[in-house]
Write a structure and sequence with these properties.
With 202 residues, the chain is an alpha/beta fold. It is built from 5 helices and 8 strands. Strands 4-3-2-5-1-6-8-7 form an 8-stranded mixed sheet. A hairpin with a 5-residue loop joins strand 7 and strand 8. It is globular, with a radius of gyration of 17 Å. The termini are far apart.
Length: 202
Amino acid sequence: MRKIIVLSFITLDGVMQAPGGQTEDTSGGFKYGGWAFPHFDDFLGKVMNDQMEHPFDLLLSRKTYDIFADYWPMHNDSRDPVGSGINKATKFVASHSPVKFHWPTTVQLQGDVAEAVKKLKQQDGPELQVHGSGNLIQLLLKQDLVDEMWLKIFPITLGSGKRLFADGTVPAAFILMESKTSPKGVIVASYRRSGKVETGSF
């Protein structure tokens, strides 16, 4: 069975929209694109390399796929674990409109997305990494399909923008597997799904 792992850059108030560039995602009038850049350093670069230097496939929304497809095929350096890993990976794309297959190893999910993802999880193969893909992540969380979360939590708040944990996220418990902090104050925390939320009284 495959694991689904969400890798996300988020702010202290949970915003995940457009961390990488000003024009990455301006939907909803979002004007803070590129907010992660001032906090990125060699420490975070090594974290990303470590998380992506082993075999994986990608599970992406259409918007994130289009962003990746416009960039990564032109940055396929075998010495770069991130670029080479992304280019080698099979890209499973959740989209209601046809996907152009100009990027090798691209597969469009057919039919109901949740059911298609459940079938993917049952197959043999490497882990399925989810990058960006805010709307897809909301679906995965609602369907309780996320096995692990590898988060980079940045020391800023934005007040508006798409959030990682939006309305409809199901109650779920996670176990902290690893945490460390970059010199610029970014918390790198990895969590594994562990069961139901325990409730009680104080």
